[in-house]
Design goal:
By secondary structure, the protein is mainly α. Helices cover 79% and strands 0% of the residues.
């Protein structure tokens, strides 16, 4: 007992010294080696007390990595896959009227084909998420990116050379495969190359690139005719709009070939190539931290080998809590109502303003706001942590959706005119966009990449795309049978459930290693309550 208590104290001291005392680094290594010879519970194991110290005192830790700029560069290049994701989401909705004319779809059939074209990309994304698991098993991370980029380019080419709507939809399905694999693989790659101190920033860059894709798709929509039915010659702009993202993914592969030749250290360690793993880590970390990072990666790989051999192992005690959190957060991201708010706000803008150019500017402002918020979330998640942003952002989304619903019903039943309700609705739209854009939008992707293994990340991403399909399919029907206010109440209900869930089940991961995250989510941990007390502070 005395030896165990001493080991826990030493472990706590090591966590604090890592943050504030560079001079004692070699001494810490000697202490770890001595403790590893002592018994079943080694001093290298991180206790909850150590985690508490790290969460509270690591804000001023010494920079362990060599260059922030080089890491950000790699993350931005990899995140072109998320630009592809955001662009594909935005460009189709802005192209539907033109595509109806191009493919000579009859007016009675337009809603059916528009819904089908909208659903095919998420369906392809679900398939892509499953493929991603087997892709990274067979190929390295970078070679997997090459394959994804070829799939994305193929989907874009098929879309633009299509002679009829069915070939176009095949192109959308294949592009969806690329989107799905990107949304599963890019967060994993970013997490593997990012030091703990930068994971808040690098994780949020995924949403920055996604938001940039939405903004660019909005700007490109200026090339479309306002009323394509009145124009006999629509030209080939629509082809450029759909081939552009595929060409951009090829650019990603070229940059990887020229500038980013090495894979991740985790990949090389999995393959048993320690020398190449060390070479990669020496490019990222200062020399004295390389061995420690090697040990961290080795421990993480060993934990996954022992507990995650099959898909069913995600339901084991070791992983279930983390998978539960990851899946629900992805579900909440969609069922917080983001797609419906974007859709309905466009109609509101059209009601308030007759000038289509002003409507375009207002719609563009909502996407630019999300892009700005993604940048802000990178700063705030690093300073205040992931959990507080998720919780507070979800509370704000709940409030704006509730007000949105009440005001919409007041307007629907004629209790107040549009002159009174429309300004409130606009405030709610931008307030909601800010709240979502700084929390549930970017942080969910960043948080999931920190807490979930490969298979768990794929399952969570599949949940996101499945939820998206449900909303795309049922929202048009719901809006035809009930006032839109009730729909906003439905989404505000899920935000309320999200508040409770985040408060109870989501733990802070700021500055924590994978081993420490494993500890706070392990149901067998006897000191789990102490981490809850940290979260409540």
């Amino acid at each position: 007992m005395i030896a165990n208590e001493q080991m826990e104290q030493n472990s706590n001291q090591q966590q604090v010294l890592t943050c504030v005392d560079e001079q004692n680094h070699l001494k810490q290594k000697q202490q770890q080696q001595q403790q590893q010879q002592q018994g079943n519970k080694t001093g290298s194991e991180t206790t909850i007390d150590g985690i508490a110290n790290k969460v509270q005192y690591c804000n001023k830790q010494e920079q362990r990595h060599r260059s922030t700029g080089s890491i950000i560069f790699k993350v931005v290049i990899a995140s072109i896959g998320f630009f592809f994701f955001g662009y594909q989401q935005g460009i189709l909705n802005l192209s539907l009227k033109t595509l109806d004319v191009i493919f000579e779809i009859q007016e009675d059939d337009q809603k059916f084909y528009e819904g089908l074209m909208s659903c095919l990309s998420p369906v392809g994304a679900i398939i892509g998420c499953v493929i991603s698991i087997y892709l990274v098993k067979s190929y390295s991370r970078i070679r997997s990116f090459f394959i994804i980029d070829l799939i994305s380019l193929l989907g874009s080419i098929i879309s633009v050379v299509s002679a009829n709507v069915y070939v176009f939809m095949l192109g959308r399905l294949i592009s969806g495969l690329g989107v799905g694999i990107n949304t599963a693989l890019v967060p994993q790659y970013v997490n593997e190359i990012s030091p703990s101190a930068l994971k808040g920033i690098t994780g949020c860059l995924l949403s920055v690139l996604c938001g940039l894709g939405l903004v660019v798709s909005n700007i490109q929509s200026l090339g479309y005719e306002n009323d394509p039915k009145q124009n006999d010659d629509l030209g080939n702009f629509w082809r450029f709009a759909f081939v552009f993202p595929g060409a951009l993914t090829v650019l990603r592969s070229i940059i990887f070939i020229i500038f980013i030749k090495n894979d991740t250290a985790s990949y090389f360690m999995i393959k048993g190539d320690r020398k190449r793993a060390e070479a990669v880590l020496k490019d990222i970390y200062k020399e004295k931290y390389v061995e420690e990072e090697i040990q961290n990666i080795s421990q993480e790989i060993e934990m996954q080998k022992q507990g995650l051999k099959y898909w069913k192992d995600l339901l084991s005690r070791q992983y279930f809590n983390r998978v539960k959190v990851g899946v629900f957060l992805q579900f909440l991201q969609q069922f917080s109502g983001i797609n419906v708010v974007v859709f309905y706000s466009g109609k509101i803008f059209e009601e308030i303003v007759d000038d289509s150019s002003i409507v375009f500017v207002l719609a563009l402002m909502t996407n630019v706001l999300q892009l700005v918020c993604a940048f802000l979330s990178a700063y705030f998640s690093t300073r205040y942590g992931r959990r507080s942003l998720l919780l507070n952002g979800d509370i704000a989304c709940f409030f704006f959706l509730l007000v949105f619903g009440i005001v919409s019903l007041i307007k629907n039943y004629g209790a107040a005119s549009g002159d009174v309700t429309n300004p409130i609705v606009i405030i709610c739209v931008f307030g909601y966009m800010f709240s979502f854009g700084i929390s549930l939008g970017p942080i969910v992707w960043a948080y999931n990449s920190e807490i979930l293994p490969e298979k768990g990340l794929s399952v969570a991403t599949i949940t996101n795309w499945s939820s998206s399909i449900i909303i795309i399919f049922f929202f048009p029907m719901a809006i035809n049978i009930m006032p839109v206010g009730y729909i906003f109440f439905f989404f505000s209900f899920w935000c309320f459930i999200g508040m409770i869930f985040i408060k109870v089940y989501v733990f802070e991961t700021k500055n924590l290693t994978p081993q420490e995250i494993e500890m706070i989510y392990n149901p067998n941990n006897q000191k789990k309550q102490e981490q809850k007390e940290i979260n409540s502070n």
